[in-house]
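Sanity check record (used in CI):
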Amino acid sequence: MDNQQRRAYLALTLATLAFAACFSVWTLYSIIGIELKERLALSATEFGFLLAAPIFTGAIFRVPVGFLAEKFSCRNLFFWQMLLAVPPLFYLPQIETYSGYIWIGFVLGLTGVSFTIGIRYVTDWFETKRQGFALGVFGAGNAGAAITLVLVPFIVDTFGWQQIGYAYGIGMIFMAILFRLFAPEVNRYYRKQRDSHDLAFHLAPLKDLQVWRFGLYYYFVFGSFLALILWLPHYYVSAYGLSLTQSMALTLLFVTSSSMIRAVGGWFADTYGAKAVNWTAFWICMVCLFFLSYPPTTMIIHGVEKNVEVSFEVNVWLFTLLIFVIGIAQGFGRASVYKTIYDHYPHHMGSVGGIVAAIGALGGCTLPILFGFAVDIIGVYSACFMLLYGVLAACMVVMYLALRAERQQKLLRDAIANNFLEQD
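Expected output for NarK/NasA family nitrate transporter:
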C-alpha cells in the first residue's frame, strides 16, 4: 500500500468516526425523549415534534453547508462543526421546559450536517470504481446512534441524568481534536479543481428532475431509518410493554445492523449496479411493511353451528425480525442512492449530495411528527407503518416510471444508431 492509499484510508477512518460521533449527538433525543415524554406528559404529536427538532436543523442546513463544502476545506468545516455542538451540550442540563428542549434541539441539530461535509471530504480520496465502497463505509457512521443507545443508559446509571450533556460535550471536544490533528488535507490538485468552479457550476444540476427523484428515494431509505431510530424505543415501550432497557437493546440491533451493512451495500452497488440494488431493497421493505401495518385484529366468522374467532397479531419477536430485515434493506438502499449520485454527478457531490441528504434528513424530521399525528388520529400503534407503506409505494411508482423512461430512451437511441449504420 503506497502513501496515498494510506492517507486515503486514514481520511476515511477518521471521517467515519467523526460522523459517528456527530450522529450520536444528532439522535440524542431518541433516548432522552422517552424520559421527557413522561416527565412533561407529552402527547404522541408533541413527542414527535420534540424528536423532530434537531433533525429539522440538520436537514435544512445540509444544503448551504453542501455548497460551502465545495469551496472550502472540508477538514476545517468538519472540525468547527463539531466544536459548535459543545456549548448546547453543556447547557442541556439547565433546561426544564418543553420549549427549552425544542430550542436547544434546533441548535444540536447542526451536528446533522456532518454527513454532507464528510461525503464531500471522502469522495476526493477514492477512484470511481471504489466510490460505492468508500461512501458505504463512511455511511456506516450511522452506527453513532448505537453509541447513544449504549452510552446514555450507562451515564444515567453511573453519574446521573444531569451529566449526559457534559459527557457528550467532552466527547465531542476529544473527537474534534483527534480529527484536527490526524485527518489529512485533500491534495492541491483537488483543491485547485474545486476552487476553479463558480456557484453557477454547482447549482446547474439542481434543475435536473432526477436529482429530486434521488432525494425522494433517500427520503425513504434514510429518512425512515432515522425516524425509526427516534420512534422505535417509544414504540417497544408503548405497543409491547417492554422495559426501556429491552427497548433500547432491540433498537440497537436495528441501528447497528442497518448501519454496518451499508459498507456491504456499497460493494454490491459497485458490483451489480446501484439501481438494481435500490429496486430490490424497496421490494423487500414493501413486503415487510405490509405485515407491520396490520394492527392486532380479531375477526368473527359466523359458521353454520358456531362462530369462529380468528386473531392476527405481530408479536414482538416477529416485529423485531421484520424491522431487522427492513434495516438491512435500508442500509443497502442508502449506499446505492449515493453510488447513483456519484455515477451521475461525480463533480457535484457537495451540492447535489447536500440537496439529497437534506431531503432524506427531512424525512427523519417530518416522519416522527406524522407518526404522532397518525397514532393520535387512527388510534393504533401500527399507524406509523401504514404511513411508511404509503411513502414507499410513492417511491416505487416514481422509480418504476423513471426506469421505464430510461429503457425507452435507450431503445430509441439504439434504433437511431442502427438506422445510421444501415444508411452507411
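The radius of gyration is 23 Å. If this sentence no longer matches the regenerated C-alpha cells, the check is flagged for review.
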